[in-house]
Amino acid sequence: RIMMKDMERSLSRTEWREAATGGLYAGLAYALLTIAAHAGRSMPGLVTILNAVSFFSFAGFLYFYARRMAAYAGGDGFSYGRSLLFVLKMSLFAGVLAGVGQFVLVNWIDPEGFREQFDLMVANMAGGGMGEKEAEMAGSLGLKLMRNPLFAVFSGIFSMLIYGGLLGLLISIFVRRPADPFGGGTSAE
Question: For 87-133, what is each residue's pLDDT tens digit?
């Protein structure tokens, strides 16, 4: 009984380590490809290709690390829910880097470009029926929030949890594995 608890703790540590490692790589790739897509925004074809590479690399990292975690689970199996939870943990870590990438993009790489986008958004809101003063306040608040590092990181985490969760719904179908009724329990690392 004590040995089973130690094995469960070891598997839990392994799960968090794998989620952090996979999230680091997935988030770094996502952030770099997002910055590259923004830099190449004057070439729509390039942006489409970079966005597709970003999507498939993120999905690939999620699949690869979830599959690895399923192998670590050994005879205990890896249920759909457990796989989805792992993908969400990984997305949490990826979201931190995605948020940092967004913060760097907005504040250091292209602050003028984002200022222009917010000005255009304010003009559209004012033309769409919102009062000019209210639209100006909303645009100003939005720009201030995007320049706040905590907001950028939490925004990245929130969006990557949704993005990763939606991908995880599909990925978990292919990663799940039933428990082995004749297996000896959890495999060792």
Answer: 999 999 999 999 999 999 999 999 888 888 878 887 887 777 777 78
**153: CB partners within 8 A, 6+ apart:** 95, 96, 99, 100, 103
Q: Is 20 exposed, middle or buried (0-12, 13-18, 19+ CB in 10 A)?
A: middle
Nearest to 32 by CA among 140, 109, 127: 109
Q: Whole-model pTM?
A: 0.85
Identify the residue whose tokens are 């995605």.
98
How sure is the predictor about 185, in pLDDT bands with cuts at 50, 70 and 90? low
- Candidates 36, 66, 63, 28; CA nearest to 52 is 36
Cα–Cα distance measured from residue 80 to residue 168, given in angstroms and rounded to the nearest whole number: 9
Q: What 3-state DSSP class applies to 177?
A: strand
Q: Where are the alpha helices (DSSP H) in the chain?
A: 2-39, 44-73, 80-104, 111-127, 132-146, 149-175
Local confidence band at 170 (pLDDT 50, 70, 90 cut-offs): very high
Which residue in 159, 11, 137 sits closest to 71, CA to CA? 11
